[in-house]
Amino acid sequence: MAIVINDTQYAGTFASYFWLPATFGMDTIQKGAAFVQDGIKKQHTIGRVDVTNPLQKRAATPSGGGSFTIDGRTLEPEDIMAYWEFNPRDFEAHWLAEQLSPTLLARELPVTAENYMLQMALNRVFEQIEAGIWMGSTTYTATPGSAGNGQICFFDGFLKKMLGDSAVHKVPSPGILTDQATASGNYNIVDAFNALIAMAATNKKALLSRPSRYDRLKFFVSINTEQIYQTYITTTQNFKGVNTTERGINKFKGYEIVPLAGLPDNTIVFCEGLPDTSSNLYIGMNSTEDNQLQLMRLQNNSELFFLKGLMKFDVQYGFSDQVFLYSTVTASAFNV
Length: 336
Hints:
The structure is a single chain. The chain is of the alpha/beta class. It has a single domain, classed as phage-related protein like fold, CATH 3.90.1690. It contains seven helices and 15 strands. A six-stranded mixed sheet has the order 5-15-11-8-10-9. Strands 1, 4, 12, 13 and 14 form a five-stranded mixed sheet that branches. Strands 2-3 form a two-stranded antiparallel ribbon. β13 (about 295) and β14 (about 305-315) form a beta hairpin. The longest helix is centred in the middle third of the chain and has 25 residues, at about 110-135.
């Protein structure tokens, strides 16, 4: 069964609430790092248009010059399900037994337990979705539903798509990120940031020429990588650093540094990530209302209940050459 009750010391009084462990939820969505396109029943295509060689020598009767290219990229959300079965009578040995219905036929979850179980279930679901947004892969060998990669094997995440895309600009020979000076096999975090900015300036200067570049371009990093940067600006620098008693500023050369729980360590994504349609990062869903769970009796003649959630997710980015990546993760990591 899905309920394991270890606290059966049925004596004294019991609080009207539960402690819940810390969870990080769908960090990428909560922090506005990508645009969420919902209402996708099967597939959603975002069109792209470009034109080449727009100018030519004047002629009284001109002939055709450059050409327009029109194509698109698709979001095709894949099914994911959360599901548990349990017997409310398991609470007869718990402190919350007093909240159970008087009659056995009508026995349901204690109200307090139901509220907190639903909240905790959603919290854990959102954690796995966040991990899948970045590290998801349909080619993991883990059994779907098992621990670890079995929780993020339902759709391909951003990193798998970016690492397999030759048009994405990647920092060559990335190493372990550190707050110290560059050492063998390592990469100073500031050097990594500078390498990404330089790559953007060289390969896509239009991004850096925009007056709004500081609002649009962002460094997306892991939680641990953010701490490495905080150490750099508070401790490593001998001058012009941040007071160690003060909150560090998550910016580098004016560009925001956004820590995301789903990103792995030693990985930085530098691109335009926004919560509107101009974002280069998209997350596709069937509906934002799918963040609810269904709690019902399994069948009329059963004491068991089930808790069920259904949702669909996919991710996509608009332009490969507008993504700049530093990562020690390799494509082979998505086949284990």
